[in-house]
Amino acid sequence: MCEPEDFHSTNFLEVKTSNKDVAILNESTIQIGENTTVKVTSYHVGLCDLLFSVNKSNTTINMENNRIEVLLGKKSLNKAFVIILAILILVNNTGFGCKLEAALLWKTLKKPLPPAIGFVCQFGLMAPLSFGITHLWNLDPLYGIGLLTIGAAPGGGGSNIFAILLDADLELSITMSTISTFAALGMTPLWLHVLGTRILSRAKAHIPVKNVFISLATITIPVIFGMLITRFAPKVSKVASKYLKIFMLFSGCIFFTVLVYTNWYLIPLVNFKIISSCLALSASGYLLGGIIAWVCRQGRDKNITISIETGFQNVTMSLFLLNISLHHPESDLASLIPITYSLFGSVLPALAYVIYATKNLIENYRKKSAESDYQKVEAIGGSDSTVCSDIKDDDKRISDVELEKV
């Protein structure tokens, strides 16, 4: 590392780390000897450099830096997370494929404008937006590649759930999810090559193209398998479709539980910049998708569907790609963005659902109150007519008695 003879006028070497949040030195000045030991205390997973310098004749001489990698001790957690993630992706997408019907897709594609708008918003906006946010927020290159893998990913399955909750166009949502899943085979590698290489070069990392296709294959192949089940084993498909919503809810709970548990050590790294960048990307997707659909006069249901499909990305694919492509701790740091996006990316549609559900509750309450008041008025009106009828009968009897007397 350092030879004593290189420094004739001093026996001391100044050392510091480039990132004190990752690791610090127990001593900032060390004595140079034949075997010099530098003691470092690490705080959390991450990367930093050891910066060596020496003062010689009132001149600071900087030496070659050495990289420190702080790794997670329990690597089995990472392996378990990747395996569970792959299983959930395979099963969920097979179930999604069972839900698809050729007639439904064909019916939606007969009016190609809404799916075309969705495709342009999905693959024409999200990747450039993630690249722009990376530079505007001045994100670390590894965080930037994490954000780009989200922007270049196809739509997520959760968009179909929000389409149901918001009474949007479910058929269009399913069609758009299907199109983006298969279109990602070309668009995701394209964006990662065009924009990703610029970010990865700064991070000194590399995502092999074959890993991109492996990640996409975990999505597309199960969907195709599910469609084949629908075609050749419709009874099995009906059973799978019947319990798909329950299983998606169950698997979603498992996913978030495993996600938080296995990546809990990354929580201290989450800061305002990371959260705001994820919110900015998701909000931009939802708003721009909705605005473009509104400009194209697609109507309320389709506007909401295109908006959701644009902003709701396939986070599981992004996580899987990063974990099989990057070494630790690079994959840990890059995965922090998809993890944060999975927690905060659905804030806007969830908020929209709360507003929509509250509005429906208020309208139903007012409607029931109006119906109750109307029934009370009818009841009062009915009793008044009965009283009038009784009075008329009494008057008639009196008149008859008077006539008999005469």
UniProtKB/TrEMBL annotation:
<keyword id="KW-0812">Transmembrane</keyword>
<protein>
    <submittedName>
        <fullName>DgyrCDS130</fullName>
    </submittedName>
</protein>
<dbReference type="GO" id="GO:0015293">
    <property type="term" value="F:symporter activity"/>
</dbReference>
<dbReference type="GO" id="GO:0016020">
    <property type="term" value="C:membrane"/>
</dbReference>
<keyword id="KW-1133">Transmembrane helix</keyword>
<feature type="transmembrane region" description="Helical">
    <location>
        <begin position="172"/>
        <end position="192"/>
    </location>
</feature>
<keyword id="KW-0813">Transport</keyword>
<feature type="transmembrane region" description="Helical">
    <location>
        <begin position="338"/>
        <end position="358"/>
    </location>
</feature>
<comment type="similarity">
    <text>Belongs to the bile acid:sodium symporter (BASS) (TC 2.A.28) family.</text>
</comment>
<dbReference type="InterPro" id="IPR002657">
    <property type="entry name" value="BilAc:Na_symport/Acr3"/>
</dbReference>
<dbReference type="InterPro" id="IPR004710">
    <property type="entry name" value="Bilac:Na_transpt"/>
</dbReference>
<feature type="transmembrane region" description="Helical">
    <location>
        <begin position="116"/>
        <end position="137"/>
    </location>
</feature>
<feature type="transmembrane region" description="Helical">
    <location>
        <begin position="272"/>
        <end position="296"/>
    </location>
</feature>
<feature type="transmembrane region" description="Helical">
    <location>
        <begin position="212"/>
        <end position="234"/>
    </location>
</feature>
<dbReference type="InterPro" id="IPR038770">
    <property type="entry name" value="Na+/solute_symporter_sf"/>
</dbReference>
<feature type="transmembrane region" description="Helical">
    <location>
        <begin position="143"/>
        <end position="165"/>
    </location>
</feature>
<dbReference type="Pfam" id="PF01758">
    <property type="entry name" value="SBF"/>
</dbReference>
<feature type="transmembrane region" description="Helical">
    <location>
        <begin position="80"/>
        <end position="104"/>
    </location>
</feature>
<keyword id="KW-0472">Membrane</keyword>
<keyword id="KW-0769">Symport</keyword>
<feature type="transmembrane region" description="Helical">
    <location>
        <begin position="246"/>
        <end position="266"/>
    </location>
</feature>
